[in-house]
Amino acid sequence: MQHSSDIRHDWTKEEVLRLFSLPFNDLLFEAQGVHRKHFNANEVQISTLLSIKTGGCAEDCSYCPQAAQYDTGVKASKLMCKDDVMAEAQKAKAAGASRFCMGAAWRSPQDRDLENVAGIIEGVKSLGMETCATLGMLTPAQALRLKEAGLDYYNHNLDTSEEFYPNVITTRTYQDRLDTLSNVRDAGMNVCCGGIVGMGEGQTDRAELLRTLANLPEHPQSVPVNLLVQVKGTPLAGTEELDMFDFVRAIAVARIMMPKSFVRLSAGREAMNEQMQALCFLAGANSIFYGEKLLTTPNPGTNEDMKLFDKLGLKPLQLVQEEHVHAAEAGVAHAA
Ligand code: SAM
Ligand code: DTB
Ligand code: SF4
């Protein structure tokens, strides 16, 4: 199929729908082909999540166990202190994670909070890990402050299509989200942006979400595809389950449309067997969240994940240490 491996920002709705309606084997074959042009197909980036400020959130995201207005049993807590966060990051590093992602249940951070988070980021960065944070909406100045503190990635999801969005969230607009993404991009940080499937949306909504992501001025460097974790007490608990092949299709289409981005098989792995996760890797997913917990809900254990990696011959992506890069550069210079 022409253009399929190009970096494009002009996808039409029809083109994306056509990808979704390909026979499953044709779609997976194409996605795996695109994947192999840009990545080592047996390497998976692993990130560990930590909720550094849990619950009590004023927003009404109808999937979220941390919204104060839903009775989900999540207890609200204050921002964690730097030492405790660093201890968790150290553990994640020892377990093999290359990136540490910190989440806070805020609509947007207060400037005072942001200073505390900036200190935490500096600490985690000093451990030699990549850093990621998801703190809600950011102003341009806040984005610059986080960049200055050493933040490598900012996660802010579009969650779904613009059309389906008002069924899910009413306390902030789609445009608010696009504005934050543009502030993050302008500050020079890597963007981690994706969405959630299985919220009762249709195939066209999934197609439109991916089209919006791919048609941004730059493809997000990281694209998390979350399967809704249904949490009792949230309005979306009890939603009809998505057919898992449609989940795999969403991964494959994301891979084809954003060939150089890391596509993350994100929330929802607890509900997937090994074979389903293997299909997601075949469809071009090359990143996971690693560690027993996502933010507030369970995730497969690290032993389980390492067993699966062994069975499939997958290897965690190692960060290229700066010293090695410098040494290699020096070597090249000598040789020349
Ligand atoms: N409060 C910040 C915000 O919403 O921007 C950051 C944290 S928020 C929990 C980060 C993302 O987690 C959400 O945008 C959503 O995509 C995802 N998420 C939250 N609850 C989820 C669930 N039950 N299932 C799947 N993904 C979920
Ligand atoms: C993302 O796209 N998924 C992660 C991360 N970014 C912050 C969050 C998933 C949360 C699942 C529900 C919970 O554990 O609270
Ligand atoms: Fe708050 Fe984020 Fe949950 Fe929405 S997704 S309720 S903003 S913590």
Write structural notes for this entry.
This protein has 336 residues and is an alpha/beta fold. Strands 1, 2, 3, 4, 5, 6, 7, 8, 9 and 10 form a 10-stranded parallel beta sheet that branches. It has helices spanning 13-20, 24-38, 82-94, 111-125, 140-149, 174-186, 203-214, 244-257, 274-282, 302-312, 322-335; strands at 43-53, 99-104, 130-134, 153-155, 190-192, 195-197, 222-227, 262-265, 287-289, 315-316. It binds S-adenosylmethionine, 6-(5-methyl-2-OXO-imidazolidin-4-yl)-hexanoic acid and iron/sulfur cluster (SF4). S-adenosylmethionine (SAM) binds at residues 63-64, 103, 105-106, 134, 136, 156-157, 159, 196, 226, 228-229, 231, 267, 295. The site of iron/sulfur cluster has 9 residues, from loops.
